Amino acid sequence: MMHALHEKRQVPYLLFLCLGVLALLPFLLLTLYNHPQADDYGFAVRDTTYSFWETHKTFYLNWTGRYFSTNTAFHVNPLIYRAIGSAVTVYKLYSLLLILLLGVSTFFLLFKLLSPYFKIISILALAVLLLCLYLLQMQSVSEGIFWLSGYLTYQLPNILMLLMLALLVGFFKTGDKTVKTAYVALAALFCVAIVGSNEMSVVMAFTTTLFLLYNNWNGRKNRPYLLFLFLACVAACLVAVLAPGNYARMEDHPNASRPLWATVYAFFLTGLSFYRWLAPLLAASMLYLFYWGLPLAQKAKALGVFQVSLRTAVLYFLVTLFLMQFAFTWAVGERPTPRVENVIYFFFVFGWFYILQVAVIKYARLLQAERNLSPALPVAAFVLFTLFLFDIDKNVATAYVDLFSGKAAAYDRAMYQRYDSLQASRCDTCALAPLPAIPQSVYFLDLMEGEENSSFWVNRDFADYWNKSGVYLSSPNPVIKDNTATLRETGKQALQQ
Question: 20 to 30 A Cα–Cα from 405, which one of 27, 110, 448, 478?
Fold first, then answer.
């Protein structure tokens, strides 16, 4: 009887795991068809032309303060070290490892936080729920997972943030001074890397370390360590933000440096974030409440990381979202690009569930009564979340369409044909065939058509990598079709065969 009851309690978590497999599978398979794009070639040329320190000096003074991502991490680009065939193989492997690392880091943080209170299957299920939610509304999958220059700048620091938080959970749980020192030292190194990746991560790291210091200021045992972490973060922020290259690049944006306009626009975009992203979060929040939130409130009422003022936690969440929007609108004068929004949405998801747990602990009795009165709510929430996840116009469905329509395979073949053509041809200014199809999940940016566009930066970088005077497409690439149109077209082709 007890065994049957135990198995019954595991059913929801098993369903979450099955849902996660279905959601993650197409992205893992798409890594087989991934290829270098856009900046990948330009940075490969840069890093084979200049030394490591020359690159740092030149870019820091003239282009960007991203000392970790753009000036350091890009040196893992396989185009630097390998022939194109093996470089592409490594490139595909990188995107696979990135997806796995994102999952592992999410699980690691949750395991450090929840392992005393939940079994492994429950923690895995929660990690899957968060990953599904992130993948569902990631603003650009190609820039967040498949384009190396994009994910090294914007996705890798998200992973490092999860690992840093996991280290800090370990710091709070241990009483050993030596272990505390080791945890904080590693967390500080991660923080320095996060800050040196992009401007959104600067904001996220700064507000998070400040929030931790503020909430633990009265704790004499932890205060010196957290003060050290915060000061290390501040020092890294100053190095990143005050880079002369940042201000040199801002001159390329005529709408930059308008603080009043940027403030108003950032307020608007912060509010718009809730309108755009909240619906699936509400369904996921209901699931979290039933299967993790309320059980955690009952098991761990004294869990320190959630014993904070709800008002302060909400303020931290909203201020961070606003500052992220403001940093971009002030520096560029425009709305954040999709790859930038990937970072904002990452914070939105994980920050939302942190705030939710703080609220659950505060209002546990009231919510427990609602839980007992509405046993059908989690079933409805699960169905609703599944419908959101596999919406035909969302990222998961797009990944499946790219796979099963043959777009990804056609793109992969065309890219290899392009490499073979360039290796075999003695052309100096080369006309290349357009792509036969564009898989939206993988594709970021390609060459432009026409010899007059040989100076376009993507064409220029690609030509420099192949030691050509110029390259261009002989005709335009096809337009990106929506999923419904693609499925209709694929169905017609199948019937004709």
Answer: 448
